[in-house]
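We modelled the chain as a single entity of 95 amino acids. Its sequence is:
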Amino acid sequence: MFTWKILDVFSEDGQITKVRYQVTHQSVSTEGYWNFRKSWQNCPLEEVSEHSVTHWLHLDMEDVRDQIHANLEKQVAKTEQVSLPWKVETFKVKL
């Protein structure tokens, strides 16, 4: 599952023109900026929700979105959690 968050919006003349986003998939995430190719906004800026902006972002970057998802999946597959090297290992007694 991929979680998209809108971190910032930038506007000109009341229209959102650019966003800063974060995408998280399991233990990895990435951030980026997107300049909208066209205006999807159909309501005043003060009525816009994060859900709406995320939807417009997905529509506008459809070709790029799949690449972002694929790259995050590759990172998850290569990620291995290890113990902290500075943390003392403890042992368990088996009875």
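As a brief sanity check on the tokenised model: The beta strands are 2-12, 15-25, 28-35. The first helix runs from residue 50 to 60.
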